[in-house]
C-alpha cells in the first residue's frame, strides 16, 4: 500500500472526529460570553422569583393597616426595626410586602398585554402583507388611526366607562400597542412572499393558510419575539405611569406606580415610600432591556 493510500484514511478519520456545533449552541455560547445579557437575565429572574414567592418571603398582609406603626423608617435608619425592614407607609402597611405583591401586578399586566398585542398585531400584519389589495388598505388605515390616537385619551375613556381594574389595564395596553407588531410583520411578509421557497409552495398547489403557517410565520417570529421582549419593559412603564395617575388598579391592591403616587406627598419626610417602588421599576425595566438587547443580537442574522 502506497504512502498516499495510507494518508487518505487518516485524513478522513480526522474529519469525522471534528465535532459539529449546532447553530443554537453557538448562539447560547455567544449569549453566555456576554456579561450584560447575563446581568439582565439575573435581574429579571430575581423579580420573577420575588413575584412568585411573595406569600412565602413576606410576613405581613400587604393591605393590612396599622396606624400605630405608620411611617416607620427602614431598618438602617434611626427608629427602624426588622419587623418592617423597609419601613411602613402612611397607614402602617408594610412596604416590603407591598413591593413583593406589587411585582405581580406589573409583571402580569406587562406579560398579558404583550401577548394580546403580539398576537393581534402579528395576525393583522400577516394578512396585510400577504393578501395586499383592500385587505392591506383597511389594515394599514387602522394602523395609522391607532398610531395617531392619543394613548392617554383612550385610557381615560376606557377607565371612565369600565372603571379601574387589572383586567381593564391589560385590555387597554394590549389593544393599543398592536400597531408596531403589525407594521413590522407586514413589511417582512411583503419581502418574504416573493422568495423562492414561497413561490415553490404556490407551484406545488399549497393553500394560502399553509404557506402562511409553514413558511411566513416561522421567518417572522424572531423579529416579533425581540420586539415583544422590549415591549414588555414599555408595558410595565405604561402600567406604572397610569397607576401613578390613578388610572390603574384600584386601591388597596399594591402597585408600584400607585405606591409612588401615594408616597409623593411624603417625599421630604418619608422618602422610601416613593423611592423604593421607583427603584423596583428601574431594576425590572433595565433588566428586561439588557436581556432584550442581547436577544436581539442573537436572533438578528445581520448581527455577527
Briefly summarize what is shown.
The chain has one domain (24-299): MetI-like (MetI-like fold, Orthogonal Bundle). The chain has 13 helices and no strands. The chain has helices spanning 3-17, 23-32, 35-52, 54-57, 95-131, 133-148, 151-162, 166-174, 179-192, 196-203, 208-244, 256-263, 272-299.
Task: Note the main attributes of this structure.
MetI-like fold, mainly alpha, 13 helices, single chain, elongated
Topology diagram in text:
Blueprint lengths: L2 H15 L5 H10 L2 H18 L1 H4 L37 H37 L1 H16 L2 H12 L3 H9 L4 H14 L3 H8 L4 H37 L11 H8 L8 H28 L5
Question: Overview of this structure, please?
Answer:
With 304 residues, this protein is mostly helical. The radius of gyration is 26 Å and the shape is elongated. It has 13 helices and no strands. 71% of the residues lie in helices and 0% in strands.
- So what's the overall shape? elongated
Helix percent band: over 70%
Q: What's the number of structural domains?
A: 1
Which consecutive residue ranges, at least 5 long each, have pLDDT under 50? 6-20
What is the alpha-carbon Rg in Å? Answer: 26 Å
CATH second-level architecture: Orthogonal Bundle
Q: CATH class, please?
A: Mainly Alpha
Strand content: under 5%
Amino acid at each position: 500500500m502506497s504512502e498516499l493510500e495510507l494518508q487518505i484514511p487518516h485524513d478522513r478519520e480526522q474529519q469525522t472526529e471534528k465535532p459539529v456545533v449546532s447553530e443554537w449552541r453557538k448562539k447560547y455560547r455567544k449569549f453566555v460570553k456576554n456579561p450584560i445579557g447575563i446581568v439582565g437575565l439575573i435581574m429579571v429572574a430575581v423579580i420573577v422569583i420575588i413575584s412568585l414567592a411573595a406569600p412565602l418571603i413576606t410576613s405581613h398582609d400587604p393591605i393590612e393597616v396599622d396606624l400605630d406603626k405608620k411611617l416607620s423608617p427602614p431598618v438602617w435608619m434611626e427608629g427602624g426595626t426588622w419587623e418592617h425592614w423597609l419601613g411602613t407607609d402612611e397607614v402602617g402597611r408594610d412596604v416590603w410586602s407591598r413591593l413583593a405583591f406589587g411585582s405581580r401586578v406589573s409583571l402580569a399586566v406587562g406579560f398579558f398585554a404583550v401577548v394580546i398585542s403580539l398576537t393581534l398585531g402579528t395576525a393583522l400584519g400577516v394578512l396585510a402583507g400577504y393578501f395586499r389589495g383592500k385587505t392591506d388598505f383597511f389594515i394599514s388605515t387602522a394602523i395609522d388611526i391607532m398610531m395617531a390616537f392619543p394613548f392617554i385619551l383612550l385610557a381615560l375613556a376606557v377607565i371612565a366607562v369600565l372603571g379601574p381594574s387589572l383586567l381593564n389595564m391589560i385590555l387597554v395596553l394590549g389593544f393599543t400597542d398592536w400597531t408596531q407588531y403589525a407594521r413590522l410583520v407586514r413589511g417582512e411578509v411583503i419581502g418574504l412572499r416573493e422568495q423562492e421557497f414561497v413561490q415553490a409552495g404556490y407551484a406545488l398547489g399549497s393553500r394560502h393558510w399553509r404557506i402562511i403557517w409553514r413558511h411566513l410565520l416561522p421567518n417572522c417570529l424572531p423579529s416579533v419575539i425581540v420586539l415583544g421582549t422590549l415591549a414588555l419593559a414599555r408595558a410595565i412603564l405604561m402600567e406604572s405611569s397610569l397607576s401613578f395617575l390613578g388610572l390603574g388598579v384600584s386601591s388597596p391592591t399594591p402597585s408600584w406606580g400607585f405606591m409612588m403616587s401615594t408616597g409623593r406627598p411624603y417625599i421630604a419626610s418619608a422618602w422610601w415610600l416613593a423611592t423604593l417602588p421607583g427603584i423596583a421599576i428601574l431594576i425590572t425595566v433595565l433588566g428586561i432591556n439588557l436581556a432584550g438587547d442581547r436577544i436581539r443580537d442573537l436572533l438578528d442574522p445581520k448581527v455577527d
